[in-house]
Specification:
heterodimer, A: about 110 residues, mainly beta, five-stranded mixed β-sheet, four-stranded antiparallel β-sheet, 9 strands, globular, B: about 110 residues, seven-stranded mixed β-sheet, 11 strands
Amino acid sequence: DAKTTQPNSMESNEEEPVHLPCNHSTISGTDYIHWYRQLPSQGPEYVIHGLTSNVNNRMASLAIAEDRKSSTLILHRATLRDAAVYYCILRGNAGNMLTFGGGTRLMVKP
Amino acid sequence: DADVTQTPRNRITKTGKRIMLECSQTKGHDRMYWYRQDPGLGLRLIYYSFDVKDINKGEISDGYSVSRQAQAKFSLSLESAIPNQTALYFCATGSALTTGELFFGEGSRLTVL
């Protein structure tokens, strides 16, 4: 399975934008890029996903590099409730199966 | 009510005991998954099922078994629990009709003494 590399942790100030990077240099042409986050004491929750084009939804934006070897999750205005572990995951065509790495722990300072 | 419900939420047991963790979902999804999370680590896939008659091993299936009793129910069993199975267990559901989003339960914390 293609793997992803994320920083272990990042800090942000409240109400500022946050850019969470992810490298996936061995991504295949059919792999979707998914982002999930896990709030303390909860199960992971879906944030956003994309294939080639940049994507926006109510939670975040996903910027995908032209060569698809990296992507960035953008939280436009971080809040204290955004403090969580963010996972960047590649998903192939079959089965919805997700392979989780270590993720990035985002800390948001007031 | 939660879309994906796991029971029990917390369980303490002793080595050698049989344990069952249950998962039920109200989303009408065909696909269900069991993951395990150890402290400070990401989730690892134990078993998954694409429909009632389909069961597949995941990355770390040794020591575990599953049963898909109905489309909405997927249970995970530890036939003879051991201490290194102490972990947080998550059930998830997904649909073949969507682009891959999974919905997770709130987790079952299992401690094996």
